[in-house]
Structures are given as C-alpha cells and as structure tokens.
Amino acid sequence: MSDPLDALEKSISTLRRAIRDASAAGDTERAGELRAQLRRAERAWDALVDTGEPAPVPPRPVPEAAPAARGSQLPAREHVHRALMLLGTPAAPKLIVGVHEAFFPGELSASKLSSLRRDEERSYRSSPGARPYYLCPALAHDLLTPVRALVTISTWALEQRIIGPLSPRVDFLTGAIRIAETVHASAMSTGSEAGPAALRLLWRFAVNIPDAMPRNASGHEGALDPQQVINAAQAELDVHADADRAARAEASRRARKSLRDDQQMFGAPPQGVTRLRARA
Fold this sequence. Notes:
By secondary structure, the protein is mostly helical. It has eleven helices and three strands; from the N terminus they run αααααββαβααααα. Strand 1 (135-140) and strand 2 form a beta hairpin. The chain is globular.
C-alpha cells in the first residue's frame, strides 16, 4: 500500500475517534465540523484507490479549543473557518460574514478578512505547516493565479479550491444546499423556526434558483421550505456538476505538476503566467 493511502487511513481513523469524543462530550458543533473533514478524507481515499493518482494532503483535525475560546471569544480566523466549513465551497467575504451571522455567535466583519488573508500567507512562509490549516485564496483554473475575492481552506482538496468556468454556479448551488440543510437541522433540533438571519440568508439563495421558492411565499422568508430549496438546487447542480468536476480535476493536475506546495495554496505569481501557459 502506498504512503498516501496510509496517511489518509490514519487521518480517517483519527477523525473518527475525534468525532466520537466530541459527540460524547455533547459538542455537536465540533462533531459536525469533524464529520465534514471525514467525508472529504474518505472521498480522497476513494479517488486514490479508483485512479491511483496522488491524493491531496489529508485534512488534519482542528485542535479542540479551550472552553473559554468558544463562541464570541474565538479569533477571526476561526470564525471564518467555521463559516467556510459549513458552506464547503470557496466564498466571498460578504457571504462568509452572512453565514457567520446566521449560524454562529460573535462578531465578524468583512474588513477583517483582507488583512487576515495577508497574515495567513505571511504566517505560512515564515513557518510552513505550523498551523493545522491556513485561509488562502481560490485558484483560477486557467492561469492558476489567486482569485483573491474568494477565500478557501488549505486542507480542502486542490480541486475544491479551484474555480472553473462553471464553478461559481456550482458553488452557489452547493452552498444553498448546505445552508438549507443547516436551517432544516436547526429547526428539527429545536422544534422551532430558524433565526431571522438564517432565513434571510436562505431566501437570498432561493430567489436565484428555479423552483426553489414556494408559490405562496409572498415575500416572507419564513414561508420557505428548506427541502424544496435542496431539491431545486440539487436538480440544477446535477446538470453542471460533472463538467465542473472535470474542469477542476484537469486544472488540479496541471497545478500539481507546475506549482510548488506554497503556490498550490496561495496561487502562481503573475510573472509565472507565461511559463505555465507554455507547460500546459
């Protein structure tokens, strides 16, 4: 068995133990984040077994925060990380703030994200790998340069951090599904309607998806049916997903061949564009 498979299997085992511990402690928020990491690690394992291609670096579990660091006392980068983990897609600062306001405690402003992205890159270059994850820009599929308007997480698979021609719509639909699922889960666990910020966020997604809005909505967010949003978003996602996946996979293969590890996280420099075109 190859080393990448060994690493992924160890990561999967570690994540499963961490999920069990978080569930036993009643920390449903952390358990949810760890389950998302586990799903990505398992998909990477499946892809490696099926294709034999190099797998992305397996995600490392986010260290457990001390009780005093929960909620509003978390640093800004942790707020951003939680919002991105919920969405599962590259996102603009405005959307990250919207997700954070809808589902998490504490304050987060879009203005913090600009300096935060610069700080993340400086931290990586001064001490590579010292942090369990880094916030980094998405990568353009053609030139592999940073798309600085979109934030991702370094532990995501490279394909997930690349933006192809169809990726903005695919990521929008994926985000809509994740938001609707979270709203539905929240309602099921509490027995009451989700908060107004969460419903407004879901509404903003739903109005841009065919057949996602109920006919009797009448401009009221509470009339939304999360399952209807999920079904409508999934129906359109099924149309675009394969083509988008292929474009991202092709770009990720070029990136692994052409870029150093740090460039795979933060993008190719502009002066490298001509060389990358020649290699492609």
